[in-house]
Amino acid sequence: MTKREKVNEIWRKILMGELKETWPGRHLFGLLPSNPRCRFCNAPFKGIGAPIARLVFRKQPSRLNPTFCNVCDRFVSQHLGGAEIELTMLFADVRGSTTIAEEMNPIDFTRMMNRFYATAMNVLVKTDAWIDKMIGDEIIGLYLPAFAGRDHARRAIEAGQELLKVTGHLRSEGPWLPVGVGIHAGVAFMGSVGSEKGVIHVTVLGDSVNTTARLVSKARIGEIVVSEHACQSAGLASERYNRRLLKLKGRRKPVAVRVLNAHSKLQ
Predict the structure, then answer these.
(1) CA 79, 11, 158, 67 torsion-angle sign
(2) How far apart are CA 185 and CA 126, in angstroms?
């Protein structure tokens, strides 16, 4: 087995949750209180154990992804490679952000977007997502078998509903920020990409990712556009939800989706 093949196999085990219990230091850090913890090494981020992890082992929440510590995040991102896995992707997008920005001064618009990022980040972390990126008016969460479990599709849909709730889509006066969500489950490559002598970034790539991006672009304010496959993976009776045929860029045939909202009961 070549070095690249070994790295790719490590990535596969990480993403599928097969390496979690044997991750270096995991048992030791598990003895220190308290939650929340790094998803890989178990280093505590709060409680009396946090200062020990920070001062002795230099472990603290990663700035790029608060579900992992800075040391584990750096270890993962420094190893070029990855694996193809089945996962669920959630894209949440601010609808009409260009118009909103035109009607606000830059400082107020930035403050509002920071509120959105913080609110959305909190939902994704609590629902066991790997936060892929925050870019422009969008945030992307990945639901992997390693962290969200076998029900990763359902966890993503639940997160989408919670995102709409916390941005005010259940309020009679309307949301404080208009948001649409796209969710799709499928096979994609996830891992670290870039150059060994340059910038390395952990991300997800493939047709399934592109499909999710297309779905969120079709979501109206307060909608969760879910692919049929994601509905099936979540164990939902898709016929209970509004069906819509979408013409997606790069697709010759319309794509069938189901449309949910914050009120929808998951059955």
Answers:
(1) negative
(2) 20
Alpha helices in the chain (DSSP H): 3-16, 26-30, 49-57, 70-77, 97-102, 106-126, 145-148, 152-166, 207-218, 228-233
Q: Is the pLDDT of residue 243 over 70?
A: yes
Say if residue 36 is preceded by a cis peptide, omega within 30 of 0: yes
Within 13 Å and on the Cβ side, how many CA atoms surround 12? Answer: 10
Q: Could you give the maximum distance between any two Cα atoms of the chain, in Å?
A: 60
Place of tokens 């472990």: 59
What is the tens place of the pLDDT at every residue in 59-91? 999 876 777 898 888 877 777 899 999 999 999
Do the Cβ atoms of 134 and 127 come closer than 8 Å? no
Provide the Cα torsion 162, 47, 20, 124; round to 10°. 10
Give pTM, 2 decimals: 0.91
